[in-house]
Amino acid sequence: MQKLGVCELFAGVGGFRLGLEDTNRFEVVWSNQWEPSTKTQHASMVYEARFGSQNHSNENIEEVSTMAIPDHQVLVGGFPCQDYSVATTLNNSKGLLGKKGVLWWSIHRILKEKENKPQYLILENVDRLLKSPAPQRGRDFAIMLKGLSDLGYAIEWRVINAADYGLPQRRRRVFLVGYHKSSSIYNTCSDDDANDWLRYNGVLANAFATSSTVQNRSHFRLEGDLVTLSNRFNNDKTLSPFQNTGICFEGKVTTVKSTPEYDGAPPSLASILQNGEVTDDFFIPEEDLPKWQYLKGGKKEVRTTKEGFQYHYAEGSMVFPDALDKPSRTIITGEGGKSPSRFKHVVQTPKGLRRLTPVELERLNGFPDNHTKLEGISDTKRAFFMGNALVVGVVKKIGEALIAKMDK
Hints:
The protein is of the alpha/beta class and 408 residues long.
């Protein structure tokens, strides 16, 4: 059976590739990973070490010609979360452009310029995308939906917490799945009631079941062009109109608040630990313990700024050490390194308190053990990769549900 060709943008160390290719129905035909803030391209080095350098690009995607990207059926990417406002209009073939350096517009540009447009999209971002920026709650997401709709895509989305569906990390991300009007699924979507699509019939509904009860259902249309939307959408409103689940079809949005439904119990943090295999440098020295306890603990104190201004500071306590009988907290990019931190994971073991290892962080995201291990790549950098990565198992579930929908 012929596999669907995939273009993987903002590839990181290959989470999308691992999840989709594990279904045996997808094949990455071109990938791009470029980190603008570092001279050494560590993530791209890992990607090439695991998957090979053929058809992999380590260039700024803004400078890559659309002509250089081979045709593909599926475009995927976990694009950076930035300010997506529309800066200007141009009286040329490129039409509307966003602010320079905002990588969402590279996705938009590729989709616009491709003569043979990818039939399907799978995109991922942090869930605050649905309510950014503060002065215009939901504006950024509205711009994306409208832009994709104008290019001929129906888009459904869902905020997914991996731990709600049998995976060992509490990691909330919004996933978007798009269907071009040339695809069979687009036509199925157009014939279906939006509420039924979101609850029963859609790809995300089949991948991640929800309760039959939904809340806060609303319908509205994204009016005007992208510049108008950028300037006027939801001005001065305190809440975003976008709930955690929804669909945009031909500019019309239906959105609801859904509740996950899953029969099993997720794996615990304890289930992924390397018991007895951890070197001493991951253990917390006794003399550092008070600093860890302070940072993890609750605080009500007076602090002073550099300018001498005093203010009251308060924050609640965190579970310390982390609970072993539940899924882990969200991995952050700063998990690596020995320095005490409020947000790093710490687990209790028979040998003492310690931080999580790179392998354990990989397991929490569903990566193979030592996927990021490479000469010249520090443990701190490996932890950074996992803080930026997505959960491979979530991607695989979406891929399987998309294939099942196509086959049906």
